[in-house]
Amino acid sequence: xxxxxxxxxxxxxxxxERGATTIYSSLREDILTLRLAPGxxxxxxxxxxxxxxxxxxxxxxxxxxxxxxxxxxxxxRSSIIAPLTMENMNDYFDTLLILTRSIMVxxxxxxxxxxxxxxxxxxVSFRESIVQDEDVFRIVFAQLDLxxxxxxxxxxxxxxxxxxxCLDYGRRTMLLHYFPFAGPEDLAFVADTxxxxxxxxxxxxxSACNEIVNEQMNSVVRVVQRSLEPTFAESVDLSTDxxxxxxxxxxxx
Length: 253
Fold this sequence. Notes:
Elements: H1 8-32, H2 44-51, H3 55-67, E1 71-73, E2 79-81, H4 89-110, H5 115-131, H6 136-154, H7 157-169, H8 171-177, H9 184-203, H10 206-227, H11 247-252
Antiparallel strand pairs: 1-2
Helix pairs in contact: 1-3, 2-3, 4-6, 4-7, 4-9, 4-10, 5-6, 5-9, 6-7, 9-10
GO molecular function, one term: DNA-binding transcription factor activity
Protein name: Transcriptional regulator, GntR family
Keywords: DNA-binding, Transcription, Transcription regulation
């Protein structure tokens, strides 16, 4: 009947749905900012206790996160934060390059006169975050804000949806393999490429946009590769002559 209060079961549905969404958003941010370490176990009981909810919305939130590749379910029905692997790193950077090029080209095609100034304000915030780099998360979020600014200038709903998703997917990789190894000159170069991109967008120069994005992506990949290089292996001498206990092994050959 109209005006009747919902029953307990009817009221629980929307509440549980809101609870699952809240848990999803909170856990997602904790995963992307590495507050929840890759490969760590998810204690569903503890999460439910933190939010004052049952395990059902927790499970629903984990299913949503699993759909984004951020949580992995194990055969014993437990779950872990998805580990970071190198197996799809090439695919990720290929996709990021394609989407970034598309965003910049679309922005150069659809820009409005006032867009340049808005982008420059976001660039100022990014440069300030680099100078005051005690907080790496400030740099990360300032860069995300700037990239989302370019995305808004592109005025493409589909790119506007998939580009931030791609950026979020790579956030853990950047926090582990880029920012700890990027020097001031690396970050300054990235900031300079953004300044050049703003100029190219204002001029409608799509060719320049493609070239600048390529330069920027190559610089990022070089830092990531540097993070994977051995740091002390060359100074370790494993020859059998150095270690007497290995000499007998060498003589047996």
